[in-house]
Write a structure and sequence with these properties.
Blueprint: H1 2-22, H2 35-67, H3 71-101, H4 108-142, H5 146-171
Helix pairs in contact: 2-3, 2-4, 3-5, 4-5
């Protein structure tokens, strides 16, 4: 009889405490980022990616330009170096601007406005990137020399990266 009573007592304890056991456990979560934090993080992330692309473009471009055995390869290399230098300058000025902006004291609405403006700029740039790709494709297909065709291939490659980058940042 005693084991039965113990079992019933245990069962009643489980049944009466079941609702408490069924409640989800609340784990501590980090607070949502502020509009300022979101904006600055996204911009820093963008400039970091652009800097990485710029350095990679310059390094691979210099290698192709100086060691390429044909004009087509050297044409790609020249474009990579040129576009990498421009992207690097944009990333440098962008990082400098972000550092200045990080010191601003703005309302959440103003930070949200800056984020919308950045999105618009990235979308405009994505449209320009399509023009670069089209121009590069025209040079690649219609170029009279191997160097011009190589330059076209380089422009297509650079424009394609920038299109993906700008589109991704606009959607971020």
């Amino acid at each position: 009889m005693k084991p039965l009573l113990t079992s019933l007592l245990l069962l009643s304890t489980l049944v009466t405490s079941a609702p408490a056991l069924a409640e989800p456990v609340a784990f501590p979560t980090a607070p949502a980022p502020t509009p300022r934090q979101s904006y600055l993080h996204a911009q820093n992330e963008a400039m970091g990616v652009l800097t990485g692309w710029a350095l990679t473009s310059i390094a691979t471009g210099a290698l192709l330009w100086t060691t390429g055995t044909d004009d087509y390869t050297r044409g790609i290399g020249m474009q990579n170096v040129a576009w990498g230098a421009i992207d690097g300058a944009i990333a440098g000025f962008g990082a400098w601007g972000i550092a200045k902006e990080s010191k601003l004291v703005l309302s959440a609405a103003d930070w949200n406005k800056k984020q919308r403006q950045a999105k618009t700029i990235f979308l405009i740039n994505a449209g320009l990137d399509l023009l670069y790709i089209t121009t590069g494709a025209a040079l690649l297909g219609l170029g009279k020399t191997d160097q011009v065709r190589g330059a076209g291939a380089g422009i297509v490659m650079q424009g394609s990266f920038l299109f993906v980058f700008d589109t991704a940042m606009a959607m971020h």
